[in-house]
Amino acid sequence: MIGTEYLAGLDWVVQAYLLLARESGDTHGPRRRNAGDQLVISTMASDKEGAILQRKRTIVSALCKSRSLDATKFLDDVGNDLKSLCVNITKTAYENEELNKWMTFAENFPSDSERCKTVLRQINEYLTEYSVLVGGGYIPSDADIIVFSTFHPYVISLPNSDRNKLPHLMRWMDYIQSIHDFGGLFERIVLEKAPFDPPLAKQTAKGEADSSTKKAESNTKKAPPNAKAANSGADLEKQSAALNKQATGKKEAATEKKKLPEKVPDDKDKELSVSLLKIQVGLIRKASKHPSADSLLVEEIDVGEGKFRQVVSGLAKYCRPDELTNRLVAFITNVKPGKLRDVVSEGLVLCASNADHTAVEPLIVPEGAKIGECVTFSGHEGKPEDVLNPKKKQLDKITPNLFTDDKGVATFKGVPFMTSAGPCTSTLSNASIK
Questions:
Q1: Whose C-alpha in 81, 346, 350, 412 is 20 to 30 A from the C-alpha of 38?
Q2: Structural domain total, the chain
Q3: Ordered DSSP codes for 156-178
Q4: In this model, does residue 183 exceed pLDDT 70?
Q5: Residue 423 burial (CB < 10 Å; 0-12/13-18/19+)?
Q6: pTM for the model
Q7: Residue 274 · residue 403 · CB < 8 Å
Q8: CATH code at 330?
Q9: Is there a domain that residue 109 lies in?
Q10: 55 CB neighbour count, 10 Å cutoff
Q11: Of 206-210, 369-373, 394-398, the least confident
Q12: CA nearest 346: which of 392, 398, 315, 305?
């Protein structure tokens, strides 16, 4: 099972590859070779080096596409090892041991078709328990892009008979090509999906319905016809006393109600205060399509907590993922986490919208605002809730008072959304915010 041995160290695949390479004559062994052998070996080595360079070019191009970078700036360095190339592109040091192993795996992936099929079968087994290669969630990492780029030339050429034997691998390949826009870098792998006809609802037989009705009627208890309707004189006196007592209680309650002050304390006003919301400045590190909803995007937002927050937003119709990447946003961080179409969302990105919702955009946070700082409102300095209570509908009561003014400044009842670098704004004036 690949789940235990493979991830214990992808070195197994690397070692197996090197062993098979030695056995097949890809490297010089101890036996004496003639000039013809040397020419064949030299040609094979040249072809192999060319395939590895092409693989690195593809990986570099795919990583750059996922980050909206110009790949030509990095293609001259394809002679370097894969890890150095990836670090240069992402500007992030790869300290994740598991991710490093996947890079080693990609760099040493075999070119021989039979050995390639063997490794694909092992990855298919691994993916029976995972949606993506690294981590236990749904968001692909650089490892998925790197390995997808490595597999694609081989998988695209597989006949359907071989693809059908690798259902988990094909599901993963389809997910990666759907969630990432590689801009025509890869030919789309078309999958044959089995048709699904939902079963018809079971109809209840007429005889069963009649039997059920009769049984219900037979179980209905009828009131006895000769019930006593008259009460004794003593009973009537008791009832009269009880009624008088009840009427007296109502009069006293009404009198006390009149004595209460006309205005109840400011609990209602407190519920509507924007200070209940914890609105922070965040940086979208990555945005991608939702795995199962075309209208949703999944963002990874840095709010200075040491780990990124995953947020699902309905921006797919209005913004491309690359337009959101590396953008500062104002988002509510104390909403209760919940799933949107099976993907956990840990916040709410605040967006301005025109009246007919044909234009929607995240609020513009001024350049210079600090990641993680709280948005403030003059005159509303209360402490935000730790977590908003959905039952109290606090957010529903506050958002009607969030809007942009005629200059596009985001406000709560006319009070600007303020950061250390100035107010949050929008290109949409007199727009609602939610």
A1: 81
A2: 2
A3: TTS-HHHHTT-HHHHHHHHHHHH
A4: yes
A5: buried
A6: 0.43
A7: no
A8: 2.40.50.140
A9: yes
A10: 21
A11: 206-210
A12: 305
Instruction: Please state, in angstroms and rounded to a whole number, the distance separating the CA atoms of residues 74 and 89.
Output: 7
In a domain, 196, yes or no: no
CATH label of the domain that carries residue 39: 1.20.1050.10
Report if residue 29 sits inside a domain.
yes
Residue 245, pLDDT score: 60
Q: Are 311 and 162 members of one domain?
A: no
Bigger pLDDT: 44 vs 174? 174
Q: What are phi and psi of 218, to 5 degrees?
A: -70, -25
* 170 and 296, same domain (yes or no): no
Residues of the domain holding 414? 272-433
**DSSP states of 6-17 as a string?**
TTT-THHHHHHH
Residue 239 lies in a domain: no
At position 209, the amino acid (one-letter code) is: A
User: In this structure, are residues 194 and 164 in contact, taking their beta carbons and an 8 Å threshold?
Assistant: no
Boundary residue ending a domain (179, 207, 234) = 179
Q: In the listed set 179, 195, 212, which residue is the last one of a domain according to the structure? A: 179
**Identity of the amino acid at 386:** D
| Helix 35-66, helix 142-155: angle, nearest 10 | 130
- One domain, residues 294 and 419: yes
Q: Residue 186 in contact with residue 177, Cβ under 8 Å?
A: yes
Rounded CA-CA distance 282/130 in Å is 29
Tokens in use for 111? 């070119």
The model's pLDDT over 271-321, given as tens digits with 9 standing for 90+, comes to 578 999 999 999 999 999 999 899 999 999 999 988 899 999 999 999 999
* Helix, strand or coil, per DSSP, at residue 39: helix
Length of the chain: 434
Residues 20 and 161 in one domain: yes
